[in-house]
Design a protein that fits this description.
Blueprint: H1 18-28, E1 33-35, E2 42-45, E3 60-63, E4 68-69, E5 72-73, E6 79-81, H2 83-88, E7 93-94, E8 99-102, E9 111-113, E10 121-123, E11 127-131, H3 142-150, H4 152-161, H5 172-176, E12 179-181, H6 185-224
Parallel strand pairs: 3-10
Antiparallel strand pairs: 1-12, 2-11, 3-6, 4-5, 7-10, 8-9, 8-11
């Protein structure tokens, strides 16, 4: 149930889902909360029609949604464009420290910050770039914004502002309505530090868990008296006696 006076610009039920509305209302109640529009951030979607024949093996990275992960940019499958093509699309030029976010499909909301691996970047149509302008730098750090957008409070807002058709997507106007709690720059720096401290602890615990699982596997194999050959010496061909074929299975893998 929702009161008529609580209607905003949207009339679809999902927009008013209790879980999403609670998050937004809590952030709105924060005394110093601003939308991305209020912060006057530069927000731009990528090139609409970049033909694959313009891709090159080196040059300026042309970022697609597959390149964006919550852990950082993944350049393993990145395509590139030459400088001439880049010059034709300068309005979608972004730089290290700027933010990129996926705006469509199952990857919607994936967000990362551009690293110093390259001097400049360009973006495809399903990616949105966000730049903290000189005016916005008085209020917010780029890394703090990236962290907020990647956490539940930011992700739920992205989901809420998205259209929910066969292929979900979020428009630039909808992104500008996302509300950010603004702290002092020193507090934002402290939040960034706590975030990365927690991330490092998580990675260490995952590594410890992997080592523990590996040791358990070794113990189990030893208890069963099984000795596996090292990968480099494993046989490529095997045989079995007809009398050992059982269970109606005659496929080699079995």
């Amino acid at each position: 149930m929702i009161n008529r006076g609580e209607f905003e610009e949207r009339f679809d039920p999902y927009f008013y889902k209790e879980e999403l509305k609670k998050v937004v209302d809590a952030i709105k109640s924060f005394p110093n909360a601003k939308t991305l529009k209020d912060l006057k951030t530069y927000i731009k979607k990528g090139v609409f029609d970049m033909r694959p024949e313009k891709y090159t093996l080196a040059g300026i990275p042309f970022l697609r949604v597959a390149d964006i992960t919550f852990e950082g940019m993944n350049f393993s499958s990145t395509v590139f464009i030459n400088d001439d093509t880049h010059q034709e699309e300068l309005n979608t030029e972004f730089f290290p420290g700027d933010i990129v976010i996926a705006k469509i499909g199952h990857t919607i909301g994936k967000v990362s910050i551009l690293p110093n691996d390259y001097k400049k970047y360009n973006i495809s149509q399903n990616v949105v770039g966000i730049r903290i302008t000189e005016e916005a730098k008085e209020f917010i750090l780029s890394e703090y914004l990236r962290i907020f957008l990647s956490l539940k409070s930011g992700q739920l807002q992205v989901i809420r502002q998205s259209s929910h058709g066969a292929q979900p997507k979020i428009t630039l106007d909808a992104l500008r309505k996302i509300i950010i709690p603004i702290f002092s720059l020193s507090t934002q720096e402290e939040i960034i530090k706590k975030y990365y401290d927690g991330l490092n602890q998580k990675k260490q615990k995952e590594a410890n868990a992997a080592a523990l699982l590996a040791s358990i596997e070794g113990y189990l194999l030893q208890a069963l008296g099984i000795t596996l050959p090292p990968p480099s010496t494993q046989k490529k061909c095997f045989y079995t006696r007809a009398g050992k074929v059982s269970g109606g299975r005659v496929d080699p893998f079995y």
